[in-house]
Amino acid sequence: MANNEKQIDSATLSTHGKLTMFNEGLKSGLANGEKFTALMDQLIDTTDGEVLLAAAQKLAAFKLDSAYVTFPHQYQNADYYLIFMSRLLGMHQDEQATLNSRRKTESLYHVFKTLSDDYTFRFQVVTNANGGAYYQEQTTGENLFYVHLERRLLRFNSTAVTNLFINKLLVKGVGVDQINVVLTTLTQFGYWLRDDFGFNVDFNILDVDNAAKYELRSAQLDRSIIDKLFVSAAENDHMLRNYMHGHGAEIELRTGLVVDIFRSAANGSDRWVLTVHDPDQAVSWFDVLLHFDFMRDWYLDNIDSLEIKADPLVFA
């Protein structure tokens, strides 16, 4: 009899253990869901920038489902980057990018009021050890910039910006003003990350600072390419002059707006760079490409030599 009672007790404890494990698993899964919704409340409602950034960081890496609790309706990790971007734009009264969702997948994407709905933008999370995410136009696959929330880093990509906004949109007849609306939103996002949170931001081809040096991807530049600009400039009533401080050339596109291309030995490196100077520090090299056809043609015709270098650590 004693042996039977012992067997019954063991069976009862085993069942109790299984039920307890199941119940604790549910509690843990539900608690994880509550933690998630608390972070979502912050992402949706906070007006404190640092709280917003912290919530986005956590949600971008959050695993909502557990072994015992699965949530059938949820956003993807990449979507929290997009929500963060939209919230920050909204906090600064920039309403050009509209946040939409796809019904079947519940994934989020941006459309811009000045572009057709054929062009949609969303983040692609980097799955390797680098982390972060690319802001990608979905039709073309162009990665316009890279952002890492934890490292507080943002890098624009000259190749993607040129391919999308010039080789695709401008060629198809999209107006310069329409393109500039989108680019203004993207660069303002970079400025607000820098000014509000101290992000390290490289605007690359979109940098309007007179001190910006746009480094060419190619380390060497054949003299014939500068000669081509000399001919094209003359045909368009501009004069190309020798660069005053060494090897290179200089052209004044309008009063006060000067573009230099020259060999620079700054910081111990020997490289070719472009600079753009204007009195208001409001013109980037990309602005030059948009507004001056002969400069754009020269750049694109010789893109293998003249392409502006983007951060090689995040753009291969």
Secondary structure tally: strands = 12
The proportion of residues in beta strands is: 15-25%
Helix content: 40-55%
What's the structural domain tally? Answer: 2
Biggest β-sheet: count, sense, barrel? 5 strands, mixed
Specify Rg, calculated over alpha carbons: 27 Å
Tally of alpha and pi helices: 9
* Helix/strand order, N-terminal first: HHHEEEEEEHHEEHEEEEHHH
Low-pLDDT stretches are 1-8
Give the N-terminus to C-terminus distance in angstroms.
76 Å
**Order of strands across the biggest sheet?**
3-4-5-6-7
Which class best fits the helix and strand makeup?
Answer: alpha+beta
Shape by Cα distribution: elongated
Report mean pLDDT, rounded to a whole number.
Answer: 92
Describe the structure.
Helix 2 runs antiparallel to helix 3. The protein folds into two domains: 188 residues, no CATH class; 93 residues, TATA-Binding Protein (2-Layer Sandwich), CATH 3.30.310. The longest helix is centred in the first third of the chain and has 44 residues. The strands form three sheets. Strands 3-4-5-6-7 form a five-stranded mixed beta sheet. With 316 residues, it is of the alpha+beta class. The chain is built from nine helices and twelve strands. The relative contact order is 0.09. Strand 3 and strand 4 form a beta hairpin.
